[in-house]
Specification:
The complex is a heterodimer of chains A (456) and B (106). By secondary structure, chain A is α+β, with helices and mostly antiparallel strands. Helix content of chain A is 29%, strand content 26%. In chain A, β11 and β12 form a beta hairpin. Chain B is α+β, with helices and mostly antiparallel strands. Chain B contains four helices and six strands, in the order βαββααββαβ. In chain B, the strands form two sheets. Chain B has a four-stranded antiparallel β-sheet with strand order 2-3-5-4. Chain B has a two-stranded antiparallel sheet with strand order 1-6. Classes of the chains: A alpha+beta (456), B alpha+beta (106). At the A-B interface, α9, β14, β15, β16 and β18 of A face β2, β3, β4, β5 and α4 of B.
């Protein structure tokens, strides 16, 4: 057994710094590169791409990235784990193997994890008695099934561990939890028992810290943010894991950013509910047990973590089409910038009313004045405001109403308040609104399938 | 009594959980944690976000990292992808909470 492994985070979301994984594999020693590409909305975008072209539906950056990192990973023995397979892990793996062939790489085992996509089985699942009730409203999914865009179960670390046992150099999954990507190599390397819930929680919390990439190493840090050096060359976080469950979060030497008690504490709190009940398919992790020790030099020890058995359910995230929205903006300058922007908003509302367009929601915000903090914004002396951007948004199920709204913004330039600018982007076009449906499904309903594709 | 501004004793991070926003607030030191633990109640947070948070506010304690976590229900205008708000995922709400000032016993 290795006495330590280094697991590096390469992506925090689809659209993150493209070169981050390259830095991770070249700027120092690591054993695993984990890359999280999936957010809820990403799944529905990928499903749409797949519907248009059944060869797509995965993070298309991956093959391009593999051109650059595969030879290095192969040489250094770095294993890659990613959920960038999206709704089409098979074609993602095929594309990666094609790149490997082009690069002259041999003896490469690519594993794919399948079975998370339940979109085509919804009818059967409902028939067998599980109505995938919405976790928030309690409503049955029956009335929404015609409008479903995607439906995926969140798998945990287990199928990835299985893939690693089968010799995988690269593991491509669909909807696996962000935390499972990091927990899996610890279970595999150290032979951790899936029923040792403290260790499962330890790997899960390490995964939670890594899952947002640079957000753990000084990015988006609200503490003393100006003290974070060289964000331009931010080093993404690395978890050094030890068999006993000790974790040290760090980053490669010489990179920018910062790993400290404060940066890790902020990331621990990101998008959590009850900290004592962080539920994953692998365990229920207790964030109130986490101890942090700042060792200096961008090293923070994370230890003392407690966990409980996982629940009997997998979480399901389904998405469905829920109408259209559009956003337009216009910028008004001094003097009376805010008053002009507010007048423009009123004129626009009146025109939409006169057109008898029916919207579910209309929202006007004043960027540069109150768009982020609403009523909490400082009351500014209007003479001090140099400019204000009116941001006007509408939403409804009626496509034509949203389209017509797009045609009512530009006319304000010649028929509204003065000293207005900022309309270079053309008419706001309606975009489809995608809503989410969180639900639970008994684990017995779905089974992950691990398949190995061998490149000899 | 003395006046404390949250910005001066704590930092934090916020994000979305469906239509709820979560705001984690971390005190810079143990003294600061004792202050936020005692004075930064769910009710104060709910009042602070009047006109922004339309649901209940839940509060959780993490003494291990000197932090509190708040869940602000019905706050994001229907959730990240449905919301018409510029800050649809509540990313700036941690900063908005740091505006809070409150009286403490000196």
């Amino acid at each position: 057994m290795k006495d330590k492994i280094r697991i590096a985070s390469g992506q925090g979301f689809w659209g993150d710094l493209i070169d981050a994984p390259i830095q991770q594999v070249t700027k120092g020693e690591i054993d695993y590169l984990v890359m999280d590409y999936l957010a809820e909305v990403t799944m529905s975008i990928l499903q749409k791409q797949f519907n248009r072209n059944p060869k797509l539906g995965y993070a298309r950056d991956l093959p391009e990235l593999m051109k650059k990192i595969l030879p290095i990973c192969k040489e250094k023995g770095i294993k890659i784990i990613t959920n960038g397979g999206g709704v089409n892990p098979v074609c993602c793996a095929d594309a990666i193997i094609e790149i490997a062939v082009e690069q002259g790489i041999k003896n490469l085992d690519v594993a794919i994890v399948l079975g998370d996509n339940i979109k085509n089985h919804i009818e059967d699942i409902i028939k067998s008695g599980c109505e995938l009730n919405n976790l928030e409203s309690g409503e049955s999914i029956r009335n929404y099934k015609e409008r479903l865009l995607s439906a995926n179960v969140y798998f945990g670390a287990a199928p990835i561990v299985e893939a690693l046992h089968k010799g995988a150099d690269i593991v491509i999954t669909g909807r696996t939890t962000d935390t499972g990507l990091t927990l899996a190599p610890m279970v595999f390397e150290f032979g951790w028992d899936f029923e040792n819930y403290d260790l499962m929680a330890t790997g899960t919390i390490a995964g939670h810290i890594l899952e947002c990439g640079g957000q753990a190493s000084g990015g988006n840090f609200l503490g003393s943010w100006q003290s974070v050096q060289n964000l331009a060359e931010i080093g993404f976080p690395i978890a050094e894991a030890f068999p006993n469950g000790d974790i040290i979060i760090t980053k490669h030497e010489g990179t920018g950013g910062k790993v400290s008690f404060d940066t890790i504490a902020e990331q621990l709190l990101y998008e959590i509910g009850d900290p004592a009940e962080y539920i994953t398919p692998d365990c229920v992790a207790d964030f109130t047990s986490v101890q942090l020790e700042d060792l200096g030099n961008d090293r923070v020890r994370v230890f003392g973590i407690k966990g409980k058995p996982a629940t009997e359910f997998y979480k399901v995230s389904a998405s469905y089409s829920s109408g259209y929205s559009a956003v337009g903006s216009l910028t008004y300058s001094w003097p009376q910038a805010l008053t002009k922007a507010k007048a423009a908003s009123e004129i626009l509302r009146k025109r939409l009313e006169n057109l008898k367009l029916d919207f579910d929601e209309i929202k006007a915000e004043y960027v540069g004045y109150n768009s982020c903090h609403g009523p909490l914004s400082n009351k500014l002396d209007e003479e001090q405001l140099n400019e204000v951007t009116l941001r006007f948004a509408v939403r409804t199920s009626d496509y034509s109403a949203v389209e017509r709204f797009g045609k009512e913004i530009a006319p304000l330039i010649l028929t509204g308040p003065p000293s207005v600018t900022g309309f270079a982007g053309g008419r706001p076009r309606p975009s489809e609104v995608i809503a989410f449906w969180p639900a639970l499904i008994p684990k017995s309903y779905v089974k992950p399938e691990v398949r190995i594709l061998e490149l000899k | 009594m003395m006046k404390v501004r949250l910005l001066d004793i704590a930092h934090g991070r916020s994000g979305d959980k469906g239509d709820a926003a979560n705001i984690g607030i971390i005190a810079y030191d143990e003294n600061g944690y004792q202050i936020i633990k005692k004075y930064l109640t769910a009710e104060k947070v709910k009042n602070h976000f009047e006109g922004i948070c339309f649901g209940k506010v839940e509060r959780f304690e993490l003494p291990n990292i000197r932090a509190l976590n708040f869940l602000l229900h019905n706050t994001l205008g229907g959730g990240g992808t449905v919301s018409l708000k510029l800050d649809a995922q509540g990313k700036t709400l941690a900063a908005a909470l740091l505006r809070l000032e409150f009286e403490i016993e000196s």
